[in-house]
Each structure stands twice: as C-alpha cells, then as structure tokens.
Write a structure and sequence with these properties.
Domain DUF7134: 2-153
Distance between the termini: 56 Å
CATH class of the domain at 256-385: Alpha Beta
Keywords: ATP-binding, Kinase, Membrane, Nucleotide-binding, Phosphoprotein, Transferase, Transmembrane, Transmembrane helix, Two-component regulatory system
Catalytic activity: ATP + protein L-histidine = ADP + protein N-phospho-L-histidine
CATH superfamily of the domain at 256-385: Histidine kinase-like ATPase, C-terminal domain
Strand order of the largest sheet: 1-2-3-5-4
Order of helices and strands: HHHHHHHHEHEEHHEE
Radius of gyration: 43 Å
Structural class: alpha+beta
Largest sheet: 5 strands, mixed
Domain Signal transduction histidine kinase subgroup 3 dimerisation and phosphoacceptor: 181-246
Helix content: 55-70%
GO cellular component, one term: membrane
CATH topology of the domain at 256-385: Heat Shock Protein 90
Length: 385
C-alpha cells in the first residue's frame, strides 16, 4: 500500500462504504421506528461522502471540503459512520501533507458545521455536550497523528535530500580528484618530454659540429641522445600506463625526489651545462610530494637554461632546508637578453613550476638575476604536508 497509495486509499474507502452499507442493512431488520431510507438515497450519499478519499493525496484540500460538504446530509440522515471517518481522515491528511494553516481552517469549518448540526439531531443538552466533546477528541487525535506522520515524513525527506547531496558531492570530489591527477600527470609529461627533448637537441647540435673533427665527441653525444630517449620513453610508458590502468599504482617505479638531484645534475653536466649543486640540510627524508616538486622545479629550470642560456653557461642549484620550509635557488650566468626583452619567462614550464609550488602553499619567482643570467627562486613550506 505504501508503494501504491492510490490502491491503499481505495481499499480504505471501500471498507468504509462496506461498514455503512452493513449498518443500513442491519437497521432495516431491527429498526421499528420506520426511520430507514431507501437504497437509492443511502447508497449515493454514502458513495458521495467516501469516494473523494481515493484522491486525498493528490488533492488534499479539495477532497477535505468535498467530504465535509457530503457529510452534512449523510449525518443528518444518520446513514452511518462514514461522515465521521472521512472527516477525521481528511484532517489527518491536511496536517500531514499540507500544513497547519489549512488544517486549522478545516477544524474551524468542522466546528461550525458540527455546532449547527448537532443540536438539530440531539434534543438533550447533555447529549449535545457529550457529542461535541467526542468530536473534539476525535479531531484532536487525528491532528496529533497527522503531526507525527508529517514530522516523520519530513525527516525522511530531509535524510533523502542530504543523502542525495552527499552522493552529488562525492561524485564531484571524485571528478575533482581525477582532474587533479590528470593535471599532475600532464605536468609530469611536460617535464619529462621538455627535459629529454632539450637534452637531445643540444647533443644532436653538438654531434653535428663534431662528427668530422672529433668523432669521439660525436659518438658520446649520440650515446647520450640514445640514453636520454630511452629514459624519456620509460617515463612516458609509466605515466601513460597510469592513465590507462587505475590499479597500476603498485607496479610503478619510485618517483624521483630531492635525493635524486645529484643524478639530475650529473646528467645535465654530461649534456654540456656545468652545474654546481649545493644542498644545505637533509633532503632525503622529505615528504614524497614535496621531494618530487623540488626535483621537477630544478629539472625545468635547468632545462630552460639549456634551451636559452647559450654556450659557455654555468648553472648553480642551491637547496636549503630549514625546520619549516625548503628554499630553492637555481641560477645561471647565460645570455637571456632575448627572453628579457620579450618578457618571456619559461612559458608553460614556468606555469608548471608555479603550480607545483602553489600546490604545497609555496611561492616561486623567476626572472633575470641581479648579476645577469636567469634565476628561479622557490619556497615550499613543510608544515602543509
């Protein structure tokens, strides 16, 4: 009946009609006063008083007043209990599904009808008072029941609404997490590809110049190109595998971190950019996310030096760890005149470095150094991890 309220209301209405019909049939055999009414009067009035209940959930206000109007002749002719039952059910419906204001107006209308009708049916004043008390108690009981059911219904609706909001929020957070992870992987791809391609371009240019005069240098440059390409392909396969397979996290190789800066500096030196690395304080035990951010910022800064600083450039990487933050300083003494004049500061590489710093609540600045060249400075707090 909860799943099909129309069917349930029809069953209730049918039971009330059946009770009234049985009462009237019994009265025909037991009533000696001759106050019975023909069936063509009783049956239509009973149906008229009860039938609106079938639609009480869809049109509660209209049904309530239709029932009240039909209950007047039904009660005056004393055709049974339908007028009392339908009035009580209508009041319960108004309280539970519409509101107190409409229900109070309906109670007032009932009080007026009952106050006028009862003295016309009952001669004894004591019986009139008793009947009015009974009607008042019935209406009060229906009001309390409607309040209880309405509060319970409102509670369930609120719970369902909150559950729906939680599901929407959970889906939204899941989409945000996916987007954040894809953005992180996109930064990783940019860093890997930009660094590898820059190294390969520099080595290819060097090999082209030395292929005839210094074959051994050209051979070493080609070997560096080969090694760099293989490393880049390995990183690309790892990152693309992460995009394809959600369960691939357990098969991934460890991410580089601050402890890998020495290896990064050595690879850049082999390419042809002398790098001096200074690390103050221990960086091996940094959180994985901050360690990876430091590594990628240094990698991008050195890649930019390779692309834009020109021949004869020297670079310096200084990492200082304190109790509550890590400071990075990557600078070179190359020729960045074109970048300075055009206001170019690393393009997407600089955007990626700043995003990495902002993720951990840090800051990053990049621009011409005080003594020439280019300088990248970052500060990453440790307390946010």
């Amino acid at each position: 009946m909860k799943a099909h309220p129309f069917f349930g209301d029809s069953v209730v209405a049918g039971l009330i009609v059946l009770v009234d019909l049985l009462l009237n049939m019994t009265r025909e055999f037991t009533d000696e006063a001759g106050q019975t009414h023909p069936w063509y009067v009783t049956v239509p009035l009973i149906l008229l008083a009860v039938a609106p209940l079938v639609f009480r959930r869809r049109y509660p206000v209209a049904v309530a007043y239709a029932v009240l109007a039909a209950s007047i002749p039904h009660a005056l002719l004393e055709l049974g209990l339908a007028s009392a039952f339908t009035t009580c059910i209508s009041l319960y419906t108004l309280v539970a599904y519409v509101g107190r204001r409409q229900a109070l107006l309906y109670v007032v209308a009932n009080a007026v009808v009952t106050g006028i009708q009862t003295p016309l049916q009952v001669d004894d004043r004591a019986n009139v008072v008793a009947m009015l008390i009974v009607v008042a108690l019935m209406l009060a009981l229906c009001w309390v029941l409607g309040e209880f059911v309405g509060a319970r219904r409102a509670y369930h609706e609120e719970v369902e609404r909150r559950l729906s909001l939680l599901e929407v929020e959970r889906d939204h957070q899941a989409r945000m997490a996916v987007n954040a992870e894809r953005a992180r992987i996109a930064r990783e791809l940019h860093d890997v590809v930009a660094h590898a391609v820059s190294v390969m371009v520099v080595q290819a240019d060097g090999a082209a110049y030395a292929v005839h005069t210094k074959p051994e240098l050209a051979e070493r440059a080609v070997k560096t190109i080969s090694d760099t390409g293989r490393e880049a392909l390995t990183e690309l396969r790892r990152l693309l595998g992460l995009l394809r397979d959600e369960d691939a996290a357990g098969e991934l190789t460890p991410q580089p971190g601050a402890q890998s800066l020495a290896e990064l500096a050595e690879r850049v030196r082999e390419v042809g950019l002398p790098v001096r690395l200074e690390i103050v304080g221990g960086v091996d035990d940094l959180p994985a996310g901050i360690g990876l951010g430091i590594y990628r910022i240094v990698q991008e800064a050195l890649t930019n030096s390779l692309k834009h600083a020109g021949q004869g450039t020297h670079a310096r990487v200084r990492v200082v760890r304190t109790a509550d933050h890590v400071e990075l300083d990557v600078s070179d003494d190359g020729r960045h005149a074109i970048r300075t004049l055009l206001g170019v500061a690393g393009g997407n590489g600089l955007i990626g470095m700043r995003e990495r710093a902002l993720v951990f609540g840090g800051t990053l600045e990049a621009g011409p150094g005080p003594g020439g060249g280019w300088q990248v400075r970052a500060r990453l707090p440790l307390l946010t991890e």
